[in-house]
């Protein structure tokens, strides 16, 4: 497990507002999803918690350009996400809560190798690199299986392998343990804990983040709690405040 003092290139949210437009039989309305978000993330492992619909997933999707802010700027190091999206996506890997959304190929090894499709590598070399990544994740024995036959935990490990093979600097995992049983939750948690990259996890799973370096609590589109704030009580204090407000669900 990486030491807590590790610091990474800053991910900066500068006065972010995010609005979405919704159509209904009565007309078009605009709803604010995120409001006046300004913060910088440098910690090794950062947890984003909050109730359903609070805006936490919308926040992390700004980091690699899956969402675009209505106003404000997001930067990863010196890169502006809006202006340098291609470079950003080479640095930021994203894992969705439902790993089925990231499965594209008929076998496990082909699915991992597919991540290298834009690299100028011979097919055999892509295949060998994919096998090596699967071996590192402890699932090389599944290489020739259909991804759709895997357990929930194995699918999440496959999704992680498909991201890690690109050597990103930042891993974002959006609810990575939501659909998993206890055994598979622990497998995924162990793999995330071992990563040298900066890890940002959106989750309701408070056990998963008990030793994270920083916790942000998002509520109604704003930052309701931040473990780096004076008087917050640190990560445990923010989690406790969240549990008292929402029962940890």
| Total E-strand runs | 10
Spatial gap, N to C terminus: 27 Å
Determine the fraction of residues in helical runs and give it as a percent range: 25-40%
Q: For the largest beta sheet, what order do the strands appear in spatially? A: 6-7-8-3-9-10
Shape: globular
Order of helices and strands: EEEHEEHEHHHEHEEEH
User: What would CATH call the class of one domain?
Assistant: Alpha Beta
- Quick check: average pLDDT? 91
CATH architecture label of one domain = 3-Layer(aba) Sandwich
**Major sheet summary line:** 6 strands, mixed
Strand content: 25-35%
CATH superfamily of one domain: P-loop containing nucleotide triphosphate hydrolases
Radius of gyration: 19 Å
Low-confidence stretches: none
Q: Structural class per helix/strand content?
A: alpha/beta
Instruction: Predict the CATH topology of one domain.
Output: Rossmann fold
């Amino acid at each position: 497990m990486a030491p807590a003092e590790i610091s990474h290139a800053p991910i900066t949210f500068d006065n972010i507002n995010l609005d979405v437009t919704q159509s209904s039989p009565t007309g078009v309305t605009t709803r604010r999803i995120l409001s006046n978000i300004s913060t910088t993330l440098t910690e090794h492992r950062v947890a984003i918690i909050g109730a359903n619909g609070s805006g936490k997933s919308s926040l992390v999707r700004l980091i690699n350009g899956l969402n675009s802010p209505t106003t404000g700027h997001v930067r990863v190091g010196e890169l502006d996400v809006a202006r340098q999206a291609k470079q950003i996506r080479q640095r930021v890997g994203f894992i969705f809560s439902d790993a089925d959304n990231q499965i594209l190929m008929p076998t496990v090894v082909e699915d991992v190798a597919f991540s290298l499709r834009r690299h100028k590598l011979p097919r055999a070399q892509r295949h060998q690199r994919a096998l090596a990544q699967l071996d590192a994740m402890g699932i090389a024995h599944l290489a020739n299986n259909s991804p759709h036959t895997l357990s929930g935990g194995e699918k999440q490990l496959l999704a992680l392998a498909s991201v890690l093979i690109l050597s990103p600097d930042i891993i974002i995992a959006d609810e990575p343990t939501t659909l998993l049983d206890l055994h598979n939750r622990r497998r995924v948690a162990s793999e995330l804990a071992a990563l040298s990259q900066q890890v940002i996890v959106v989750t309701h799973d408070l056990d998963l983040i008990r030793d994270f370096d920083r916790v942000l609590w998002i509520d109604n589109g704003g930052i309701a709690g931040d473990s780096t704030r004076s008087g917050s009580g640190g990560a445990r204090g923010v989690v406790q405040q969240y549990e008292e407000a929402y029962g940890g669900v």
